[in-house]
Specification:
alpha+beta; Beta Polymerase, domain 2; Methane Monooxygenase Hydroxylase, Chain G, domain 1; 7-stranded mixed sheet
Length: 314
């Protein structure tokens, strides 16, 4: 899918594209989502812009993620995508001859939100660099929303750990693991944004207003990275607390089994003695031998139980 945008009447407007002739010189942003070979060819024929393959976007070496050549300035950046399980997908950005080209395999929320805002007010997104910064700013805002959501979930997990039973607590470990994974991916996106902004800053292509916007985004990233670190610590604390509660509950069960074993040892000893098959056992001829043996077994069980209760071991 190929989307083309122009800025008209202080609004970012999408124009219909049925072929290369629809791509005019006033287009400031060409957004390609899982493009076909024909759509790539339109961009090449109309603007002379050679685009990388979607598979090439996953390369992580610095030379692939940040580069500048005769085809423009190239940046590849991570964006969160997914519902319950988040994934980082790579988006390729190219700034060339006052035009922004974006290439990605998934339709991303950041792009939809930015287009909606710029459609109502494009005063800060009139050129390619401002569009790029606007998309990165929207990305940071949505990452902040994700961190806020994670913080709320961790608060719920904290309350659940101290109110639920052992079986419920063991299920929370999976939720905490998912939260830690999501927080790690958010942090990766923030760090990636930080590197991208530093690269743009060194490129010398920013106006004064754009430089101010870049510094504002960097300040937001610094605060969010601090919050992300706090959430990592919070997850580890909750995991430790949950593990401690589970261990205490398991130790309590083991203690009960141990006490029960000790209580049953004397009766078992008595029963073992009178279960021996010796001919010369004088108690075998007692008329009261059987009830006395039962009484002895009961007493040998009750006395340890009372002792443990007095010591508050039960």
């Amino acid at each position: 899918m190929l989307n083309a945008f122009v800025v008209r009447d202080n609004s970012l407007q999408q124009i219909p594209v049925q072929g290369p002739d629809d791509l005019g010189e006033d287009v400031v942003w060409v957004d390609l989502v899982a493009p076909t070979d024909a759509e790539r060819d339109w961009v090449l024929r109309r603007y002379g812009q050679l685009l990388p393959e979607v598979e090439e976007l996953a390369e992580i070496e610095a030379s692939a993620r940040f580069a500048q050549d005769e085809d423009g300035l190239h940046v590849r950046s991570y964006f969160l995508h997914g519902g319950e399980y988040l994934n980082n997908v790579t988006v390729g950005f190219t700034l060339h001859k006052g035009r922004l080209f974006t290439l990605h395999e998934e339709d991303l929320l950041e792009f939809r939100v930015f287009r909606l805002r710029a459609r109502n007010d494009a005063s800060s997104a009139k050129d390619a660099v401002s569009l790029f910064l606007g998309i990165l700013d929207t990305k940071v805002e949505l990452l902040a929303d994700t961190l806020e959501k994670l913080h709320g979930e961790l608060e719920e997990y904290g309350r659940a750990i101290h109110t639920k039973g052992e079986r419920d607590i063991t299920g929370i470990f999976t939720d905490l693991s998912h939260s830690e994974d999501a927080n790690g991916k958010v942090r990766l996106g923030l760090l990636d944004n930080q590197r991208t902004l530093s690269y743009l800053q060194r490129g010398g292509i920013l106006t004064h207003a754009q430089a101010e916007m870049l510094h504002e985004i960097q300040r937001d990233i610094e605060s969010l990275l601090t919050h992300s670190t706090f959430l990592f610590e919070r997850v580890h604390l909750l995991m430790t607390s949950a593990m401690g509660i589970v261990n205490i509950q398991q130790n309590q069960i083991i203690k009960l089994f141990s006490v029960a074993a000790v209580i049953l040892m004397p009766p078992t000893l008595v029963a073992s003695i009178y279960g021996m098959n010796f001919h010369r056992m004088p108690e075998l001829d007692w008329s009261l031998g059987y009830p006395l043996a039962l009484a002895l077994m009961a007493a040998s069980a009750v006395l340890p139980f009372l002792y443990f209760k007095r010591k508050k071991w039960l």
